Amino acid sequence: MQAVKSMLLGLAGALVLAGAAPAATPAPYDGPRKTVAVDTVQAAESVGGTVTADGMTALLIDALGRDPHFVVVERPGLGSIQAEQQLGGVQAGTGAAAGSLIGASVIVRATVTKFEPAASGGGISIGGPMSSLIAGRAGAKTQRSLMEITLRLVDTTTGQVISTYRAQGFASASSADAGVVNTFTGATAGGGMFRATPIGQAGQDAIDKAVAMIATEMRAVPWSAQVVQVTGDRIYVNAGADRNMRAGTVLYVYRRGEVLTDPSTGVVLDVEMARVGVVRVEGVRERLSTAVLVSGEPPLRGDLLKLD
């Protein structure tokens, strides 16, 4: 009987130890990185206007840039890209179609739809000559701020909205750094940074949730790059080590065909794509790769390259 008890106790101990074993840590993402273009976040005056728009744009770019799935094209770069496309489109078949972004799978567009500086909790102590608008952040209590943003993922080839969703973020005003903040707009007096304000902290929380949703949604968006130039038998691709490109990778070449538009609205519904060849990456640099033709037609500048 004692032997049976000892065996059962030993088995129970083994089970406890097995149950206490830490779960295996997932391997970090090491696949091809998709390029996203970030448009300027929109924010009405009622939710902080330019101060909120600029601050949220910076937070969104930073959050996406830290995610290993993405390479980010910032808004200041979009104008030059689009101008180049307009020039490239002058000679048919040699440039990217106007309205699409070189190398970018989607454009991320965000709008701040709500900011409630006192969504819940106690008040903020107020003082000074501008007490009707300015609250002393050093005396902040347990007030909870709420920010809501709406995001759209836009296909860079057709201009169609792939998906739309909403994210909410919360922050405690008492966690803001000492200084002065306009509780209505989020603007700071005395040079405090946007990230340290209640609206900035709530915005960061909303963006962190939004980036997780973007990563999930982007799984369905095919990885793609474009042909930059063809010189002799050497093909230049606008994806390099920055996008985790590897030597030996096989890419399929697609060429844009007819653009299908709605006859009543002129909105682009889809773009016909035809596979014209296959190339293989041989050399990888920081921001571009070189490839050779494996089969099919030689690619042209602006042709799309996909993994499948």
Structural notes for this entry:
- The protein is of the alpha+beta class.
- The chain folds into 2 domains: 34-218, Rossmann fold, CATH 3.40.50; 224-306, Thrombin, subunit H.
- It has 4 helices and 16 strands.
- It has helices at residues 2-20, 49-66, 75-88, 198-218; strands spanning 34-38, 42-43, 70-73, 104-120, 124-126, 134-140, 144-155, 161-172, 180-182, 188-189, 224-231, 234-237, 250-261, 268-284, 289-296, 304-306.
- The strands form 3 sheets. Strands 1, 2, 3, 4, 7 and 8 form a 6-stranded mixed beta sheet that branches.
- β9 (180-182) and β10 form a beta hairpin.
- The longest helix has 21 residues, at 198-218.
- It starts with a helix and ends with a strand.
- Residues 11-20, 83-102, 122-140 and 175-192 have low confidence and may be disordered.
Name a few traits of the molecule.
alpha+beta, Rossmann fold, Thrombin, subunit H, 6-stranded antiparallel β-barrel, 23% helix
Tell me the span between the first and last alpha carbons: 65 Å
Which fold name fills CATH's third level, the topology of the largest domain? Answer: Rossmann fold
| Domain tally | 2
Instruction: List the secondary-structure elements in sequence, H or E.
Output: HEEHEHEEEEEEEHEEEEEE
Tell me the fraction of residues in β-strands, as a range. 35-45%
The portion of residues assigned to helices is 10-25%
Do you know the CATH architecture of the largest domain?
Answer: 3-Layer(aba) Sandwich
Overall radius of gyration: 26 Å
Name the overall outline.
Answer: elongated
Quickly name the level 1 CATH class of the largest domain: Alpha Beta
Which stretches are low in confidence, meaning pLDDT under 50 for 5 or more residues running? 11-20, 83-102, 122-140, 175-192
Q: Please summarize the sheet with the most strands.
A: 6 strands, mixed
Structural class comes to alpha+beta
Mean pLDDT: 74
- SS summary, helix count: 4
Number of strands: 16
